[in-house]
Backbone:
């Protein structure tokens, strides 16, 4: 299996504690809302990161 050439713009791992230690409860590589409603500046930061990664397009 190959390795991703770049880091994703978003990734989230959710863990829970069990008697045996930590276990992964969820893994997200996409998030429809990205919680933009929690920080007014976050949409602009995401756009800047997207443009740095993929460019402005044609």
Residues:
């Amino acid at each position: 299996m190959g390795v991703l050439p770049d880091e994703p713009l978003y990734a989230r791992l959710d863990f829970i504690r069990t008697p045996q230690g930590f276990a992964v409860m969820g893994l997200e590589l996409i998030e429809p809302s990205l919680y933009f409603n929690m920080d007014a500046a976050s949409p602009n930061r995401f756009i800047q990161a997207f443009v740095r990664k993929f460019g402005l397009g044609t």
Notes: The first strand starts at residue 12 and ends at 18. The mean pLDDT is 84.
